[in-house]
Design brief:
about 15% strand; pyridoxal phosphate; Aspartate Aminotransferase, domain 2; globular; seven-stranded mixed β-sheet; binds 4'-deoxy-4'-aminopyridoxal-5'-phosphate; isomerase; Glutamate-1-semialdehyde 2,1-aminomutase; alpha/beta
């Protein structure tokens, strides 16, 4: 029995499903989850000392690689000064200033402890600001697990087949309108019918919780237009895309300005952090300035702030994102070529430092429905063959992959050779 198997057996006695977040349980791929104990650069090491090239990167935060010395130094320095004060600190201002500088649509920002808190608070703010209850989201987009947003959600909710979770009151869920991602006509029709009741649209500007689906031309533009004409707020959930698909996030890459933005993952460099912010006139409705309540004992935690700031400094260096995009493209192109050589129907795509791949005959996946028709069984086989080869991919077909600054050409070539062998094994079954 491997140490991961032994630990998983032990974990299940006291932790529901043996994990503290569902997708970690390998339900999407079968088998026993790998328990890790160390990570460095592009590599992650399991409890049996097996090394993997890591394309999960803690689900996105590790954009500069694991255990980056500058992040660790910043944490060590802060550690000696104190872990948490529950009172204002200068480093929170520095963080707010940095975020607003990098994402200019954010004129004010509030720090929280997770992406879930960021989106939940942004929704409350949009409702409080507009005085409307209805919100629009898209099927397969995941915005964390708060009640209003756990309706037809992606990621783990999709893997486990609970897109509408028990425990979400129907009285609340009825205010969440779910449309199809990239369906411009449906958005227009919805706003023609009930636009004046809608507080906000929340969208992943590149969907990363139903694999990786970039927006089609005109989709984000349409969202901006219908919000402008109806008085609804446009919220870009950039928890995944923020600082990753471009320095200024998807809003910079696609040139669309949202009213509110939510952030997480990269902004904490691996510490538990989220943030939401946007237009000053909207953010001024947050307490204590305004009546919309939002708070947090550990919000703006100094350790998290210094870690995040160290990471943001590194990713602000010239060419960081050009290089990240180049690496992701090299990986995606290599995968496409390997699949073609072996004769496996396959599609892959990247948006900056995030990528997705699909076992499908199609050469463009733009919708939830198309994504759901991909060959999940082939994905599961590929996942396990790659694991045996020493490559750690997201353990579910509905998740985006993440690349980091630490991934070298050799790491990617290693991955591509592993992929070609894995494709061959699938083909020979
Ligand atoms: N929004 C998006 C787009 C996400 O991808 C996630 C998490 N993967 C969340 C929100 C929720 O973030 P957290 O898990 O930190 O609560």
């Amino acid at each position: 029995m491997s140490r991961s198997e032994a630990l998983f057996a032990r974990a299940q006695h006291r932790i529901p499903g043996g994990v503290n977040s569902p997708v970690r349980a390998f339900k999407g791929v079968g088998g026993t989850p790998i328990f890790f104990h160390k990570a460095q650069g592009a590599y992650i090491y399991d409890e049996d000392e097996q090394r993997y090239v890591d394309y999960v990167g803690s689900w996105g935060p590790m954009i500069i690689g694991h255990s980056h010395p500058k992040v660790l130094d910043a944490i060590r320095t802060q550690m000696d000064l104190g872990l948490s004060f529950g009172a204002p600190t200068e480093v929170e201002i520095t963080m707010a200033e940095k975020v607003c500088e990098l994402v200019p649509s954010m004129e004010m920002v509030r720090m929280v402890n997770s992406g879930t808190e960021a989106t939940m608070s942004a929704i409350r703010l949009a409702r409080g600001f507009t005085g409307r209850d209805k919100i629009v989201k898209f099927e397969g987009c995941y915005h964390g697990h708060s009640d209003s947003l756990l309706v037809k959600a992606g990621s783990g909710a999709l893997t486990l087949g609970v897109p509408n979770s028990p425990g979400v009151p129907a009285d609340l869920a009825k205010h969440t309108i779910t449309l199809q991602y990239n369906d411009i006509d449906e958005v227009k029709q919805c706003f023609q019918e009930v636009g004046n009741d809608i507080a906000c649209i929340i969208v992943e500007p590149v969907a990363g919780n139903m694999n990786c689906i970039p927006p089609v031309e005109g989709f984000l533009e349409t969202l901006r237009e219908v919000c402008d004409s109806s008085g609804a707020l446009l919220i870009f959930d950039e928890v995944m895309t923020g600082f990753r698909v471009a320095l200024g996030g998807a809003q910079e890459k696609y040139g669309i300005t949202p009213d509110l933005t939510t952030l997480g993952k990269v902004i904490g460099a691996g510490m538990p952090v989220g943030a939401f912010g946007g237009k000053r006139e909207v953010m001024e409705h947050i307490s204590p300035l305004g009546p919309v309540y939002q708070a947090g004992t550990l919000s703006g935690n100094p350790i998290a702030m210094v870690a995040g700031l160290a990471a943001l400094d590194i990713i602000s260096e010239p060419e960081f994102h050009t290089e990240l995009d180049r690496k992701a493209k090299y990986l995606v192109d290599g995968l496409l070529k390997a699949a073609e050589r072996v004769g496996i129907p396959f599609h892959a795509v990247n948006a900056g430092g995030m990528f997705g791949f699909f076992f499908t005959e199609s050469n463009a996946i733009t919708s939830f429905k198309e994504m759901m028709s991909c060959d999940i069984e082939r994905f599961k086989l590929f996942f396990h063959f790659m694991l045996e080869e020493g490559v750690y991919l997201a353990p579910a077909a509905y998740e985006a992959g993440f690349i980091s600054q630490a991934h070298t050409k050799d790491d990617i070539d290693f991955t591509l050779m592993a992929a070609e062998r894995s494709f061959k094994k699938i083909q020979s079954l």
